[in-house]
Amino acid sequence: MCRWMGYRGEPIVPRVLLYEPERSLIAQSVRHGPDLLEPNGDGTGLGWYSRRRTPAIFHSDSPAWGDENFRELADEICSPMFLAHVRAGTGTPVQKTNCHPFRYQKWLFVHNGYIDGFDLLRRDLLMAVRPDLFANIKGSTDSEVMFHLALTFGLEEDPVGGLERMAGFVESAGAAAGVAEPLQMTVGLADGETLFAARYASGPVVNTLYMSESVDAIRMLYPEHERLRRIPAHARAVLSEPLSELPGVWREIPPSTALVITDTPHQRPFRPQQPG
Amino acid sequence: MCRWMGYRGEPIVPRVLLYEPERSLIAQSVRHGPDLLEPNGDGTGLGWYSRRRTPAIFHSDSPAWGDENFRELADEICSPMFLAHVRAGTGTPVQKTNCHPFRYQKWLFVHNGYIDGFDLLRRDLLMAVRPDLFANIKGSTDSEVMFHLALTFGLEEDPVGGLERMAGFVESAGAAAGVAEPLQMTVGLADGETLFAARYASGPVVNTLYMSESVDAIRMLYPEHERLRRIPAHARAVLSEPLSELPGVWREIPPSTALVITDTPHQRPFRPQQPG
Amino acid sequence: MCRWMGYRGEPIVPRVLLYEPERSLIAQSVRHGPDLLEPNGDGTGLGWYSRRRTPAIFHSDSPAWGDENFRELADEICSPMFLAHVRAGTGTPVQKTNCHPFRYQKWLFVHNGYIDGFDLLRRDLLMAVRPDLFANIKGSTDSEVMFHLALTFGLEEDPVGGLERMAGFVESAGAAAGVAEPLQMTVGLADGETLFAARYASGPVVNTLYMSESVDAIRMLYPEHERLRRIPAHARAVLSEPLSELPGVWREIPPSTALVITDTPHQRPFRPQQPG
Amino acid sequence: MCRWMGYRGEPIVPRVLLYEPERSLIAQSVRHGPDLLEPNGDGTGLGWYSRRRTPAIFHSDSPAWGDENFRELADEICSPMFLAHVRAGTGTPVQKTNCHPFRYQKWLFVHNGYIDGFDLLRRDLLMAVRPDLFANIKGSTDSEVMFHLALTFGLEEDPVGGLERMAGFVESAGAAAGVAEPLQMTVGLADGETLFAARYASGPVVNTLYMSESVDAIRMLYPEHERLRRIPAHARAVLSEPLSELPGVWREIPPSTALVITDTPHQRPFRPQQPG
């Protein structure tokens, strides 16, 4: 089913979120919660903004829990914004080009979920991708196609709107093909300055999405907590599943909601739109 | 923790045991039972006897559940004897040379378990391996060292005795280093004609081992069961965890027991010995 | 640039052709001739007909020269027809889904060459693939698209005709996009009974293709040659580059030629056609 | 045969040396000079000093020329000291634990060459490694054993002396086993402040080693050369094979020589010693 996380704030060493917490992303790669059923061992990825405007990418087709390169980078990098992802494939091959984050220029994209009936819809969805973007599609996942459809529908100028038009297009294509509830998603998106996220599904069951509360609020709740004291002032994390069970640290984001995470994060509705 | 299985009997296509049952080896790679906790996604291996006297080997450092080559071979091979293994590493790297089965001439060896304190003991255990066998050690696992110690202590002439002397040596080395309960194991061993297995641990908790009942007994219990009717007459499987929950199909092997599986399988005690 | 070979005849162990000759396929993976310039180390593949009607496949994203699984299979398999391939990528990623042979039901396909301007043409070529075949496209190579276009244009009923119509379509697409000489190819194709090959390029430089002479002719030339005596009576090999420099063993196939290899192989012209 | 390079100086982006020159390390992975014969496609590695005292490591078992992660890191990292290596194996498996650089605390080590007769000598050499260092040996190469022998013989306090005593020990062990010329090596070594190198072989043929001339000398020779103007003031590179054919840029280091590269590099003899 995948698990992902995004960070925005003062530069930190990713290990702090990826390895150290009780339910770290590495722990989530072994089994994801809350029912602790399946592993997310079909690939690992990290995208981060550091030296250059264009984010750097690391992809591995190995499970995250055993990937030494991932561990090294998590310990060496110091970055103000990154997206990390552990994959559970939904039918497409395990290979580096099917790992998230996907990248287009300054943008990074991760996804947890699927397009139901993707076998039927794949051809039509691919054909709707803008020709100049088509060459950037390297793998065979539904997630990568979703990203390129959102780019086609104006993500660069209007990120949440682009995602909404992508969702609307996927749902229309699904309806035309007799797929009742085609879209299941939480997505993370970054451009180096702002972190975006959205939680939406065509049906009643929606993959989970959480955001950390403000650092001030967390410190007020847990004044003695050593690790929480180290979190920088404006830091925010957004992710599929909480890193710990401490009450009050993680805010569940409702379905059909998008997040725009700047120094003052805000929520807004997420409603699939018809592309113009 | 690993999971493995061995087969002996009329030639079958391994898929029948590796993929088709409810709790197939592939299902066990996703989560192993009975508590369905951890994946066994640190490597995959298959060794089989077919065209040649020396068994053939396939190893992958990818999880079994996604390995297309493993699926292809499981469907293409037709073999009267094979050992398959899905790995959960206990601290040594994920790489093909750390996958089971290990091979020495006509012998194949798989292991589920560990040597506690292997970091401390590794050097001494390696040095006890007979020099001409040393070059056959390609990886860094405790399992591979156990195999080569058993070969050093006469496995080729006396398979169970060689394993018992290996166990005794490991326990002595552990005692000398202050490791209280060094050995946890079920092992599978094959030479192309006979399938061997053993279940033993230094302490009270012992990894599980099961053998299939005779085909006649299974058919009597389940006269209408379609899949069970297809099992060849003298077929036996031995494995870490039952492939299904059908009562009466799988016999649990007690701790401190070895199996010698010919057309008339028998059990015997397994007692660590001091090497002469 | 890739190198491939195909075999048809009495069952042999592939090692005989893949590993043993002076310029074996493994040697060709290290450096391909005749100018011994580049390695073909971007992937390895083997497809073979044995137990089932559908051929089995092995793919590795590692160079052939170091792949232990490939060596094992080459020694264990005994098959009357197989295609093997060592890849030099032309811009698409190194991953198992980009390895040859590609498979569709009973068919296997290998390619040495490229579609020039594939970045520009990829979208249009993909869209010309018959929708029911589209789901079988797993990777991102031009080779895989060529195979699926040939299937779209009737390869199953008329193999050489399907390839000719694919070539014609690619050249038309190229012309429309301003690509002067889009197609460079030798291809190998098998269905379990017949081995097909073709050598064609849009321009004057054409990748090489060779077929072995009849076994009788070879034995007449080299009555004392030990290895050549072991070749079965109707055996034929077709490949990119000769396995040895023995005069008279390898016949160079002219450009714009197709081969149909049955017990009585014949050559015929290969001319790109316009698909109906 | 391997190829490696080391850099010391003002922080640079490794791509400048690894990818951009005419005979970059990537070009050397495709074919190494001067006879342009074999690829170095059995693994890739990079170790660099940046954020922490302990160097970070990246290893891949894929050829460098196609490794996207290596390309990304080469473009993202900015480091004052790094060692990079492209491997041609000499009989041990292709796996990440057999990639260079090897690391021990603040030290990085790369090697081009081999220990002749390593199969015979491996056991004795391993046993001479100090027990507390033994656990740091993760792979099966002669190179990794050489590093740990040098550490055993005092490399941390006296780097060149430790290497000399390792060489003496290897030669003694070889002599005792009847191996005439056991050691072939250039080695690179770093501790975060100083870069060391040595060129030595037991016999008359010695793998090559070069060091860049001072930046002042290079700029005087080539005042108009754009890329050479960008090289920082105290920068030095040491490597197996020159990155370009520009006369006067690369100084060949004689056999039996060690380099100590600080702001004022100096050469000294390298003579195998008997360990105390």
Describe the structure.
The structure is a homotetramer of 276-residue chains. In chain A, 26% of the residues lie in helices and 27% in strands. With 276 residues, chain A is α+β, with helices and mostly antiparallel strands. The first copy, chain A, has a single domain, classed as Glutamine Phosphoribosylpyrophosphate, subunit 1, domain 1. The first copy, chain A, has a 7-stranded antiparallel beta sheet with strand order 3-2-4-1-10-9-11. In chain A, helix 6 (142-152) packs across helix 7 (159-176). The first copy, chain A, is globular. The interface between A and D is medium-sized, with 18 and 18 residues.
The largest sheet of chain A, given as strand count, sense and whether it forms a barrel, is: 7 strands, antiparallel
| Oligomeric state, counting identical vs distinct chains | homotetramer
Order of helices and strands of chain A: EHHEEHEEEHHHHEEEHHEEEE
**Overall number of domains of chain A:** 1
- The helix fraction of chain A, in percent, is 25-40%
Which CATH class of chain A? Alpha Beta
Q: Strands of the largest sheet of chain A, in order across it?
A: 3-2-4-1-10-9-11
Q: Indicate the mean pLDDT of chain A.
A: 94
Within the CATH hierarchy, at the fold level, what is the topology of chain A? Glutamine Phosphoribosylpyrophosphate, subunit 1, domain 1
CATH superfamily of chain A, by name, is Aminohydrolase, N-terminal nucleophile (Ntn) domain
CATH architecture of chain A: 4-Layer Sandwich
Beginning-to-end CA distance, first to last residue of chain A: 31 Å
Give the count of helical stretches of chain A.
Answer: 9
The rounded Rg of chain A comes to: 18 Å
Shape of chain A: globular
Tell me the fraction of residues in β-strands of chain A, as a range. Answer: 25-35%
Pfam family, one (chains A, B, C, D): GATase_4
GO molecular function (chains A, B, C, D): glycosyltransferase activity
Protein name (chains A, B, C, D): Glutamine amidotransferases class-II
Organism (chains A, B, C, D): Frankia alni (strain DSM 45986 / CECT 9034 / ACN14a)
